[in-house]
Amino acid sequence: MQVDDLKFIFEALKNNTTLRQLKLDENKLGKTGAELTGSLLKFNKTLEELSLRKAEIDDAGATIIGKGLEDNKSLTQLNLSTELIREEHIKFINSVLMKNKLTKQLKFGTNDIREQLLRNASEELKFNK
User: DSSP of 76-129, one letter per residue?
Assistant: First the structure.
């Protein structure tokens, strides 16, 4: 998917009230795509599941998405598996999601994460009800 296509789709989704699930797996989103995703998460009020598996999101992109999640009150599932995200940026996303108390499922498979961080995230998610 090209960035211009993504811009068009995300602009339409900012005010969308019906779409609940969005899968952008295996698209080369990069930094621009992460910025668009962060903006979408800030404004969209109905998206519940977002999958960005193999979307080439790096540390900076993860932080941008995390900032978009600070205002999000609908997302319950986030998949960032097989990305280029290091542990400190995953910690940031995790801390944001723990504050909003909505996220029930996180996927960070094959990122640079220690097992203890995953255990901590898993324990914290138990209290998101």
Answer: -EEE-TT-B-BHHHHHHHHHHHHHH----EEE-TTSB--HHHHHHHHHHHTT--
Instruction: Using the predicted structure, report yes or no on whether residue 71 has a pLDDT greater than 60.
Output: yes
Among 121, 123, 12, 111, CA closest to 53 = 111
Helix (H, G, I), strand (E, B) or coil at 24: coil
> Cα-atom radius of gyration of the chain, to the nearest Å?
13
Predicted TM-score of the model (pTM): 0.75
- C-alpha span between 129 and 125 (Å, rounded): 8
- Tell me which residue of 16, 56, 9 sits closest to 36, measured CA to CA: 9
Structure tokens belonging to residue 59: 């540390």
Cα angle vertex 44, ends 128, 28, to 5°? 95
Is there a contact between 37 and 56 (Cβ–Cβ < 8 Å)? no
